[in-house]
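Reviewer 2 asked us to include a model.

Predict the structure of this chain.
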Amino acid sequence: MNPNYNQTITVYNRIKGADAEDGKDIWKRTVLENCFYKLSQTKIDDGKTAKMAGTYVARIPESSSYLPYREFAKIKGAGNSFTLNPGDIVVKDVCMEEITGKMPNTASELLARQKPEAFQITVFSDNTSHLRGKHYRVGG
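Predicted model (structure tokens):
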């Protein structure tokens, strides 16, 4: 195993309301170990104000628990599986909070509470066809 894969992350998967029985978004939390997690912070200065911006990358080793979203959404309760999609949330370390969709447990509130160690996935790539180092990569 890659020695850089030494982090634990929590992934929050959103099952879209259109795919749920009651028509409401459902969030499922999964803790994944032996992952790579990196936050790169850069200072953005437009001459008026200076801000810090973060670029996030997480790599998750290939797993038999991973399912593409269409298969994941079909499983009631999603079992022990997880998926990775734009809009899902990654938090560094174990995060026990639940997303219920009601204040104060909405996705945006969870992100705000966990920043800078949390991000919303904006990009996903499946790198399990590689000869070595098979993994899933997410960024935000």
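Residues 7-139 form one domain. The chain has two helices and seven strands. We have added this to the supplementary material.
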